[in-house]
Amino acid sequence: MSAQRAEALHTEIAACTLCAEHLPLGPRPVVQFSPASRILIIGQAPGTRVHASGIAWDDDSGDRLRGWLEMEKDAFYDPAKVALMPMGFCYPGKAKGGDAPPRKECAPAWHDRILALLPEDRLTLLVGAYAQAAYLPATRKLSMTDRVKRGAEFAPFFPLPHPAWRVRMWMASNPWYEAETLPALRRQIAARLG
Questions:
Q1: Residue 54's CB: how many other CB atoms inside 10 A?
Q2: Against a cut of 0.90, is the pTM above it?
Q3: Exposed, middle or buried: residue 90 (CB in 10 Å: 0-12, 13-18, 19+)?
């Protein structure tokens, strides 16, 4: 039954035009989930490359994220293992300094419905400031660095920086991330994937 509910929800999301008038490239929701997904990755919104391919994290940021997770593409793109649910499902357009923020209509319309289908014992990776603001609102006064460093306090949520190219400078200034945070994350992923 839940597989049928998931399929019906996928169909509904694919047809979504909730904020079409605000999307410069039109709607093309990008999301992945199944009732078996024990790892959930909540990012921000697709970029132009992901919009073009229709495949979440199909860009340099995705390569970096998969490297952090030590996860091959076949596992990452297996909805029975990993759900990919951005804060905004469609490319939001450009803004000063990069892409515009995720559209605000998406998460309230779809997140709870997707979450209701996922296993309760899932690990949820909050990738970037938008996901962390939505799912860890009590930490808004913390810097992203502090949220990531104190990540163990927020289980079952695991905050991560966004893996855009700029993160390399941040990682160079925060060597604990590669030395401590990523190994802890990989252990949690291995535990969920068995």
A1: 12
A2: yes
A3: buried
From the centroid of its chain, how far is CA 77? Answer: 13
* Tens-digit pLDDT profile for residues 85-115: 999 999 999 988 789 999 999 999 999 999 9
What is the strand order of the sheet 123-127 is part of? Answer: 82-84, 39-42, 123-127, 157-160
Contacts of 54 (CB under 8 A, 6+ apart): 28, 30
Distance CA 134, CA 11 (A): 25
| Token pair for 193 | 């994937």
Q: Are 161 and 65 in contact (CB under 8 A)?
A: no
Rounded CA-CA distance 159/146 in Å is 10
Round to whole Å and give the CA distance between 3 and 8.
9
CB 30 within 8 A of CB 46: yes
Indicate the SS3 state at residue 125. Answer: strand
